[in-house]
Amino acid sequence: RVSTPDKYTLKYPQDFLISWIPPKNPACLATDTDYQELDFWTDDNIGLIKQFSNQVKLAVINSHFLEWLETCCSAPQRKELLDNLLIDCALYYPASERVSTPEEFVEKVANFKGGNWCIPVHDKKGTRVIKITKECHTWLGLELGDLIINQLLEERSKYDKRNPKEKAYNDLFKLYTNTVYGDFVAPYFYIGNVCTGNNITAMARTMAWCMEKGFHGFQTITDGCMFDLGRVIYPNDRRLTSGILFEAYSPSSNGKIKFRPLANADEISPYVDEGLLGLKVSQNGETKSLTNKEAKEWIEHKAIEHLKNLFPGLSVVNHYILEVKEIYDSCVFHGSANYLPSIVNTFLIPKMRSYQNKPCEVWDLEGEQLVKVLEDYYPALEFLTQLSKDSTRVSRGKTYLQSKILKTAQYVKLYSSSHGETKLFPGCNYYEARLVREATLSQFKFRTFEQWQSWEREFKKLLDETGQTYEQFFLNKDGTLNYKKLSKTLDDLIRKGYQRFSESKKASKSRHLHREYSLHPQAIVLSKVKDKLAQAQNHQAEDKDNYK
Q1: What pTM was computed for the model?
Q2: Cα angle for residues 232, 325, 15 (degrees, 5° grid)
Q3: For the chain, is the Cβ count within 10 Å smaller at the N or the C terminus?
Q4: Cross-referenced InterPro entries, in alphabetical order (predicted)?
Q5: Is the pLDDT of residue 432 over 80?
Q6: What is the DSSP annotation of 228-267?
């Protein structure tokens, strides 16, 4: 793992290395038994994993990083990283300790004689103790592909995932293949190997970086992204460096790169093919129509070819094949992982983290009385649909109830005090009152950990005091939200290095910004519904909001 020096800010931004901020209390780090509790996985226990453009903290590097450093970085950026990335810890396998067969490995381990001892040394510099640890470091390298992965992939290929009768078996062998990774890095087993895990994920992250940069992709998550077939990146008479690609999403990228259709086609346009979308590809005066299946195969072939041409120095592009999930004619994006795709102007099921795609009850106040006003409210679908229609005029969310499964940690939180008996127990359904949170910080690339911390504190403070965050500063006269302006403004401030949003407001300089605060129009309703649920479900009330 490597880090930049304390208080040092990189001159040349990067978005390749992922930082890890450990928990403040090292005692919170995982032990074997800790992993068994699902609620253990919080920032307080395992730390924060996030990307910072001008700072690196405990990032994992391997051979793929070295390739990226040599072939994708400009000379000044390469020099800065080589001069300022300090090694915090390292893990390696000595070539001299490697054996070639399992029998040889067993013999070496069985016959190893080592131990731990100390040697006191007395000289003019004083007395010191040298500790010597001699343990067995014999190791055997196995190709996972030859061991089991290739066999699983071969079995999976026998079943067509597009065939409803065979899809279940295709998914089954996909699950088998994916869980092999979990088995190799799980702390439950003696074969658990953090080095293997880090190298596998580092390789996948490198490929994801290539896809995002080469395709000008959106919402890159784990091993995939979405992109516009008519706007992939090509060099503009100069070598594409990581610095140029980093700025591809900002106005400052003008002239440094060019956007053209995939495969250098003149035009790529969709057409309806049995309810799905096919493609019409025009090139050199000829237009070829591809069915949905043919179009996916064409994209898969041309996309990986595009990456190989764009990043010839990165070996990772030669180890992956790409799979196109579906072709859409439009898509709405929100935050880092929320989206709503459409085919032939028909919206599909929205994907919005922590929001369910089930009808919800909406409650509101009539005078002082809480009343149910709606029973089929879909918060994620309504919000994302409004973004697609006009992102400058988005109606504010309604107070709704969401059914959830009561987990152990939440049970302890709600029922730990002597508030009385309850018929609920872990595994039961219970209700939670919620609002759609339009503003999110997850979509922005922060420069440093300290900058992210500052914005996060301000975000939580505003939410606690007003029931909303930055939305209140971007409202139209009719009370709707100008989400487009909100996103662009926050992105600009974060890129420029502002430590918090309030720095951009004149009233903040005289400490009068609180005079511009305003409650979310549903804040009081939400608070009353939470209290009502606490009484109905017989649990202790949640922390009181400061605006109550």
Answers
A1: 0.88
A2: 45
A3: C
A4: DNA/RNA_pol_sf
A5: yes
A6: -TT-EEEE-SS---HHHHHGGGSGGGBTTEEEE-GGG-SE
